[in-house]
Amino acid sequence: MIKPISIITALLFLLSGRVQGQTRTITIDVTKPKGELNTFFNACVGAGRANEGLRADWQRQLRIAKEQLGFRYIRMHGILQDDMGVYFEDSQGKPIYNWQYIDELYDFLISIKVRPFVEFGFMPKALASKPTTLSFWFWKPNVSPPKDYQKWDDLIAALVRHWTQRYGEAEVKQWYFEVWNEPNLKNIFWASDQDEYFKLYKETANAVKAVSPAYRVGGPATAGNAWIPEFINYCSTNKVPVDFVSTHTYGNDAFIQKSDDEATAESKRRDAVSGDVKRSRKQVDGSAMPGLELHYTEWNSSSSFNDHVHDHYRQAAYILEKIKRVGNAANSFSYWTFTDIFEEDGPRQTPFDGDFGLINYQDIKKPAFYAYRYLNLLGKQELQNADSSSWICRDPKGNVQVLLYDFTDKFFPTRADSKAFYSKVIPPASKGKVALVYKNLSPGKYKMTVYKTGYGVNDPYTSYLQMGAPSQLTRGEVESIKQKDNDIPIISKTVVITSKKPFQESFDLFENDVLLVTFNKL
Question: FRET partner for 342 with CA separation of 20 to 30 A, picked from 8, 9, 131, 334?
Fold first, then answer.
């Protein structure tokens, strides 16, 4: 008699063999265009707070992100924070404005062709109605409504007029103006209620439009896809100007982490993030204002600022999976954030501290960076594709790019062990092979180049763990990690096409691998 446990073991062995022996086929027919590639994925990226943007290392990393990842807008907190020196009052209560820090930051952004996605917030203390601050943040922004809405309106109008004078109306009307951040998180980001936020929005939107009706303003910038129908209904009913809807989503079910050791577990919803975006799009389309743009001004796998999933090789595949599933539902999809130079929880204590960024403090590029790097290397024309986890594109020179990934979402740790789970080396299992079949290529010589991000390749966090996870890195250790994880192609060879016969090439595939295969005519 065969014992039940033996049957289970045998089945697992057979299933494992199937996975290891299976071949996933992607067919590339260069004669079948689909249309223009939607590049909503790099329209915008996030950053922590405006004052951090005055740092040389922050600016150096944003320049890298612009050049290699192609981000066109940037959104950040704290443009009105007291550390930007924007608003004061004299002994008589008369407002005093100062734009010097903002000018320094925005001049830099414009110089590298990154436009501001302005978030108006938080409240200058001299204008605040309450002393309420976001107490568990390192820089403790004031989150109360203004004590005097006329002074608030005047501040917004004066700042927008200043930008118009400095950069010109033609430039500023390309920007977006978003009112506040996550006001639905009461007594966390907003020390009032929905009605008071709608009042703040109305006052701010009218102040912006008074400078130029062409300027784009929107909200409600909520956490968790909230308030969209209510916000649109308010604006429609009260004839309040609005050009776009904005909100946020993360791949976990709890948005706020209030203690250093509280890790945030991943949502078990298979459509987490992408399903949220699609549902929000339906809400907009079904509203009284269906033509509004939809901007996701924050998203990531986890809303925790010390979750090692952000450092892990799996993050690259996660990013591509969510972007692929969003499709055309959003106008922008702003990854939070481009850098680990991010101080909501204070200065980082270790080189890989689980922070949101694509790049760590030492300019080490994480696996997430390469997901955006590969997306940015795709040609602007997408080709027809029956594979659900890849893009096939062509550039104006006729070169072909295939960006493919495996997303194996099997980890689902509990809330208590999420951070610990991603704090160790996790080798992947085999997913068999992937075969690329090229059809209707013109005869001639081609260079095939294959780039990979996955376990042990463009995977600095695993390299760091294998070093013993030192609390600080020496210069030599930094260089060692960079040399190992520098996106050198894993394959580069010449291919000769002599006929219209399909050309095929196969590659090993492991869990959460990302491969970019370029096929360039010589």
Answer: 131
